[in-house]
Amino acid sequence: MKYVSFVRCIALGLALLCLSQRVWAQGATPTLAIGWPQDGAVFQKDANNQGRIPLLGAFNSLLWRRFGTSAYRVTATLEKLKVSTGEPFPGAPIIEQTVTQLDRVGQLASFENVDKGWYRLTLKAESAGLFVGRLRPVSASIKVGIGDVFVIGGQSNAQGLPNRPNNGQYPNWNKVASPAPTYDGVRVVTSYFAEADQAAMVPLGIFERWGQLSNLKSVAEAANDPSSGIAPAGPSLWYWARLGELITQRYGNDEVPVAFFNAAWGGTAIKEWSRSTNPNNGVLASPSGGQ
Question: DSSP assignment of 94-114, as one string?
Fold first, then answer.
């Protein structure tokens, strides 16, 4: 009986060795990707200064599919960062979850009741069980936050003017603020859609443009690119980048990120913006032409 058990162990070991060699021979190096949230995303905090961060992703690994947690230990972690610089927040604990399965839609984990803050979200797979020390670790990382999200509405004084640094008609509005924006945790989607493109986005065309409304850049990065605006309708950072920094400074403690989306439209009537705040008014037929 002991001899049979020994033979079975040898057979299992050879089978695992052959499988590992086949995986590497086929070039099936495992890959790990975070599909949601997008890099730089900010989720609105609630009245308790907390929020939820869902995690969707994909782990492309033959060994994970066949052996699961017997081959890999997959973890998701949140490391708190400073909003101003993106550096680690002193004394903050790292929040960790272990991922045990990956279903068809890619749901990996969900961080519930996360305190307000700016975080580095890391998904990491390390060898475990039968394969400890035999597989290279793989990881993916993004930045994400629980803070304040603003949708800008109004006329041209909210939409802003375009950046025209070369012809002298307008300054580079992305750098006109003093001091220039520098915060890592104040975020915008920098894709600006011209009026013709905006018209094509209504009502369902926006889903076709999702790739252009994905990753949120820091205002520090956006300020160095004259083509950066605030999606979908803001042609520049205008004064919003600086306002975002002032908002997070007002909270204090360098821990509340801010995100902006600019839906303002030059020439629209303030009266219609006011009417649109009442859901009983329904869809407005003519938003422009007034004061």
Answer: PEEEEE----TT-EEEEEEEE
Alpha-helix residue ranges (DSSP H) falling in the chain: 2-25, 62-67, 156-159, 195-200, 219-223, 240-251, 270-276
Task: Give yes or no for a cis peptide into 287 (omega within 30° of 0).
Answer: no
In angstroms, the CA 54 to CA 239 distance is 31
Burial letters 23-61, b for 16+ CB under 10 A, else e: beeeeeebebebebbeebbbbebeeeeebebebbbebeb
For residue 72, which phi and psi values (nearest 5 degrees)? -135, 150
Query: CA nearest 266: which of 289, 286, 243?
Result: 289
Is residue 108 within 8 A of residue 56, CB to CB? The reply is yes
Longest dimension (CA), the chain: 92
pLDDT per residue over 174-208, tens digit each? 666 667 789 999 999 887 766 545 554 554 455 55
pLDDT number for residue 267: 83
Q: Cα–Cα distance between 177 and 160 in angstroms, integer? A: 13
182 Cβ contact list (under 8 Å, min separation 6): 84, 219, 220, 245
pTM: 0.80
Q: Where are the beta strands (DSSP E) in the chain?
A: 31-36, 41-44, 50-60, 72-81, 95-99, 107-115, 117-127, 138-152, 186-188, 217-218, 258-262
Is residue 250 exposed (0-12), middle (13-18) or buried (19+ Cβ within 10 Å)? exposed
DSSP 8-state symbol, 178: S
CA distances for 226 relative to 82, 164, 165, 176, 237, angstroms:
26, 8, 8, 11, 9
32 to each of 180, 186, 289, how far by Cα in Å? 36, 27, 52
